[in-house]
Amino acid sequence: MTITRVGIVGSGIMGSGIAEVAAKSGHDVVLRSRRLTSAEATVAALEKSLAKQVAKGKLEQGEADAVLARVVPTEKLNDLADCDLVIESVVEDLSTKKQLFIELNHICKDDAILATNTSTLPVVEMAMETHHPDRVCGVHFFNPAPMMALVEVVPALTTSRETIDAVMAFAEACGKTPVEVKDRAGFIVNALLFPYLNNAVRMLEAGTASREDIDKAMKGGCNFPMGPLALLDLVGLDTSVAILDALYDEFRDPNYAAIPLLRRMVTAGHLGRKSGQGFYEYS
Ligand SMILES: NC(=O)c1ccc[n+]([C@@H]2O[C@H](COP(=O)([O-])OP(=O)(O)OC[C@H]3O[C@@H](n4cnc5c(N)ncnc54)[C@H](O)[C@@H]3O)[C@@H](O)[C@H]2O)c1
Asked: What is the distance between the alpha carbons of residues 189 and 197, in angstroms, rounded to a whole number?
């Protein structure tokens, strides 16, 4: 299975990042958003980011032009019909993702691989919505996708070895380091990371320390590149609550039970960087 044409569904934080990674590594990319204007805005942001890289001498102008020419924005799911691999990166909600897999199953060519960038949800649930559950897999990129080396490749119980190998090869072709992990909520990274992030919110809610001091402590004391509250803002608080809920549903471990403050912030529309307000303010 050779992957040359990649479809991305969803042009949020992760869909945009994965589109950039795939295009920069030479793949043709069809970027689908529900509204054409959103997909076009993502391509415009990519153009800006490439121009900055050219200005800094990190990229040749010719390369930047070629990357941009490889990304086609669309609002039509039908435009994914001839993709070898489709990666969905829409909102972390199982029923939305399952519905999307039902539609992709009808639209995509028979030998296409359908993949999900879910952080926690059961890959097998999406696989079983298709006629080819052997060709469905998790491919979990990290945020920001252009910078983070890791990709978790997550076979469902139904996924064939051929599919896993093709997705591992795709991740490597994107310049990433893939690891293979079973279809369990949170895979490796989020299963280990989220109790820590959740407990940082518990600590803030208890008034143990200020937001700045909690973040400063984990940076200075553990040599982490950013503190837990800043990281939650980067991930998105809505996505974080969805991740915690999926982890709690599966393991019933109280460390995964989203702290009430986190849930209330989401209700208030304080989603982190993407809304301009989270634990910190962003302009
Ligand atoms: N944010 C992270 O750090 C991170 C990291 C790795 C993986 N993920 C996963 O990536 C996926 C997307 O997360 P994100 O951070 O890009 O979120 P986001 O909020 O930035 O983007 C979500 C996208 O889903 C679309 N969407 C929302 N409702 C929809 C619907 N009903 N039908 C179709 N599209 C819909 C939105 O228009 C948007 O394009 C999720 O599965 C998430 O768990 C997120």
From this structure: 12
Q: List the catalytic residues.
A: 119, 140, 152, 190
User: Residue whose CA is closest, atom 25 of ligand 1?
Assistant: 90
Residue pair 150/177 in contact by the 8 Å Cβ criterion: yes
| Residues within 6 Å of ligand 1 by CB | 10-15, 33-34, 89-92, 96, 117-119, 140-143, 235-236, 239, 274
Give distance in angstroms: CA of 69 to centre of ligand 1.
24
Q: DSSP for 52-97, please give it.
A: HHHHTTSS-HHHHHHHHHTEEEES-GGGGTT-SEEEE---S-HHHH
pLDDT band at 2 (very low <50, low <70, confident <90, very high): confident
At residue 148, the pLDDT reads 97
pLDDT in tens, 12-41: 999 999 999 999 999 999 999 999 999 999
Please count the other Cβ atoms lying within 10 Å of the Cβ belonging to residue 8. Answer: 31
**Nearest C-alpha to atom 2 of ligand 1 is from which residue?**
235
Q: How many angstroms does the Cα of residue 10 sit away from the middle of ligand 1?
A: 6
Nearest to 146 by CA among 5, 42, 22, 10: 22
What pTM does this model have?
Answer: 0.95
* Closest residue by Cα to residue 77 from 154, 175, 7: 7
